[in-house]
Amino acid sequence: MESMLLKCPAWLPTRFVMFGLVGLSGVVVQVLVLGGLHRIAGVNFLWAQVLSVWVAMTTNFVLNNRLTFGDRSLVGASYG
Question: Which of 20, 28, 29 is nearest to 64 (CA)?
Answer without folding.
Answer: 20
